[in-house]
Design goal:
Elements: E1 2-3, E2 6-7, E3 12-19, E4 22-29, H1 31-36, H2 41-56, H3 72-78
Antiparallel strand pairs: 1-2, 3-4
Length: 93
């Protein structure tokens, strides 16, 4: 995968999990993938969608572009400010 002028490769693994009597498949990404896309979750979601298609056996058409890669500062600027919660405890009398 190209990000700007750099090329990156990532490893994904699929493993089976049993929840009750139901077998599910879990796809895990390598640590590098999580670090590279920690502030670009929209791109990570698009890539994971392609990986899921591949593991399901679906035909996968690779796009030329999966989004604009933003910096940590840009990601933080897009976040909504958190409202402060009143966590004070009033003793009951």
């Amino acid at each position: 995968m190209s990000i700007g002028s750099s090329e990156h490769s990532f490893t994904f693994t699929r493993k089976e999990e049993l929840i009750g009597q139901t077998k599910i498949f879990v796809i895990e990404e390598d640590r590098n993938f999580a670090e590279v896309f920690q502030f670009n979750q929209q791109i990570a979601g698009s890539v994971m969608s392609l990986v899921r298609q591949f593991y399901k056996g679906d035909s996968v058409q690779l796009p030329l572009d999966v989004g604009d890669f933003g910096t940590m500062e840009e990601a933080l600027a897009l976040q909504k400010p958190r409202e402060r919660e009143n966590l004070s405890i009033t003793p009951s009398v």
